[in-house]
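Review box. Two proteins, two foldings.
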Amino acid sequence: MHLLSLRFDSGEVRIVLRRSATAKALLKVVPFTATMQTSRGSLMFDCPLTVRPEEPNTTDLVQVGDIAFWSDASSLVIGFGPTPRSQGNEVRLAHPCAIIGDALDDLSILSQVTAGSSVTVSLASAEPLASASGA
């Protein structure tokens, strides 16, 4: 199991990566810092993958806490609430993405993230995992 930390000005969200070619490639480029793009209910930031692995299953309909990779823009996307494309309370992203990880912590801090702010992506320790909401 591989854990990453996403650090924002408003706090930290840890994610556990799923077993996929994209998640494996992501591990090779951490740590990195990126600039946030925001939309109601979702965040997106560039990811410095030099290779864009193709995932067999992509979707635009995700669950709160899914961490997705949009290969067309080489970006990580986090849906945390209804977006402009959602119907009702669903979380529908602007583009089909591959789900590569799952958030372990409370995502309420994501609503405080502003466009143009920074996120730092790094490896995370598994030590306090028992206190995480998804553990």
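Next protein.
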Amino acid sequence: MQAIANLDQLLTRMQPELDPGRYAFVALPPGCALDPAHVVASVREPEGLSVVVPEQVALDMDLPIAFSAAWITLAVHSDLAAVGLTAAFSRALGRAGISCNVVAGVHHDHLFVPVEQAQSAMDALQALSRSAA
């Protein structure tokens, strides 16, 4: 499928999908051995490696959880150079009082929102998509 850059098309086709699991943002302590198969996302920061893993993995490894999240994937194949998509969904979620941490993959945008606000986030994203149609 061709990546979409047009904002109106991105919004009308974004199709948010809620993953049924719970995910944890953690900072790995030095020397921590984590199976790469468990890593959903990662970023190297000056303080060390931050990762998103299934929450149960973090609990099993006794890793301090900085943020527990629900994972929403925007199913639309968004162009990494597209302008305005992140601003649009951030604004919609912000108006609903929902924080959001975004990870962009090559094909999709992945939104991590507070677990207890997952359904409200889905509602806000679906309303945004409908209003763009």
